[in-house]
Structure to design on (161 residues):
């Protein structure tokens, strides 16, 4: 959101920023997110992903040889966008900007796998372990170490524009 956003000549950016508590609550919701990496030719590679949490950080699981993972091995700059809303006055979202850590340790990969499984499929039980193991076959985790957060919640404008 640009700082120039105005309503009746008044800047609105400060009104729509989420607090840290609002950001945390929003990210805990069951959303898809857009993950953007940089291709070898400098173009942007964006993909929709489900996400979970590893060690308090947003993270995803991916095939080890996926384009996004190859991009991050070359250049760890990563942006993740989680958004919600159907109309302008209901738009809200969080952009997380930082560096990716590629995680290959099986215990940490499994921890993230359980997080994703629980968020999008069903609460995890030990009976689900074979399904999670299968989901994680030939997978790595991409964990985002956040440098900067941008947030917005147009619902705070009380009816929008």
């Amino acid at each position: 959101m640009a700082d120039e956003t105005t309503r009746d000549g008044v800047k609105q950016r400060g009104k729509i920023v989420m607090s840290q508590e609002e950001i945390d609550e929003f990210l805990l919701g069951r959303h898809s997110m857009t993950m953007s990496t940089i291709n070898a030719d400098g173009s942007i590679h964006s993909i929709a992903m489900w996400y979970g949490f590893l060690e308090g950080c947003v993270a995803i699981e991916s095939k080890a040889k996926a384009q996004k993972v190859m991009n991050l091995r070359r250049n760890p700059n990563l942006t993740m966008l989680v958004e919600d809303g159907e109309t302008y006055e209901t738009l809200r979202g969080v952009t997380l900007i930082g560096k990716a850590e590629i995680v290959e340790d099986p215990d940490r990969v499994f921890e993230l796998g359980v997080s994703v499984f629980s968020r999008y499929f069903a609460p995890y039980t030990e009976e689900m372990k074979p399904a999670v193991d299968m989901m994680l076959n030939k997978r790595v985790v991409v964990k985002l170490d956040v440098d900067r957060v941008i947030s917005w919640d147009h619902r705070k404008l009380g009816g929008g524009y």
About this structure: Confidence is low (pLDDT under 50) at residues 1-5.
